[in-house]
Amino acid sequence: CCVCGKPGAATVCCHPRCERQFHLPCALRGLCLTQYFGSHRAFCSRHRPRQALRRDPEPQTHCLLCLEPVGQRKSFRTMGCPTCQHAWFHRSCVQGHALRAGSTAFQCMLCRDKELFQAEMLRMGIHIPVRPPAWETLEAFEGLMARHGQCDATNCLCPAGREQAEEEGPWQLLLCSSCAAEGTHRSCSSLRDSTQSWECRGC
Questions:
Q1: Could you tell me which of 27, 53, 75, 144 has the fewest CB atoms within 10 Å of its CB?
Q2: Tell me, which fold does domain 50-145 have in CATH?
Q3: Structure confidence by residue, pLDDT tens digits, 119-178
Q4: Contact 31, 45 (CB under 8 A)
């Protein structure tokens, strides 16, 4: 391995006549680059693609994701948007953002360009999973979609406990008609059988 010097390196630089090899886990530390699209090419630190940006970051430029300084020149660890050329970020920060945003929401955080930005990030070794953003998955909203299912009366009288809910009768569970975030058994709040709605104290 051209990075750690140990045997077993299986990733070879795809540049013609380059015989440098490295372990995939050593790539980032050795400034090597692996592309996660097409034929999944790999490059050593000498032959990896560089960004063709017209300018370096201005002094006191901060990463748009972590808000820490990015340095005063573009490098392997400092990347910029190819469209607006004003958005700068750390490689590790934009990789984390790509994993969370997925292909449908990953775009420049400043100019909102998506097509050229994604193409450049893929070329520069950023892995962009083909999926919706993590914050829109069903699991992210599972807790919000769950129906409240217990009696919140100060003294719950139900012998089977607060989570007991029957279709009708004294242990029928009514949810607050305004917020649906609290509930009560009919008997626990002295509600008649004819009562169809109930509001919690907060509402």
A1: 144
A2: Herpes Virus-1 (3.30.40)
A3: 999 999 999 999 999 887 656 566 666 788 899 999 999 999 999 989 888 999 999 999
A4: yes
Domain 147-202 class in CATH: alpha beta
Write the pLDDT tens digit of every residue in 67-78: 999 988 889 999
Q: Output the furthest CA–CA distance in the chain (Å, rounded).
A: 87
User: How far apart are alpha carbons 10 and 24 in whole angstroms?
Assistant: 8
- Could you give the CA distance from residue 67 to residue 64 in angstroms, rounded to a whole number? 6
DSSP for 107-174 reads: --TTT---HHHHHHHHHTT----SS--GGGSGGGGHHHHSPP-S---SS---TT-TT--BSSSTTBEE
Question: What is the number of other CB atoms lying within 10 angstroms of the CB of residue 129?
Answer: 16
Structure tokens at 40: 């999944």
What whole-number distance in Å separates Cα of residue 77 and Cα of residue 87?
14
Residue spans per domain, the chain: 1-48, 50-145, 147-202
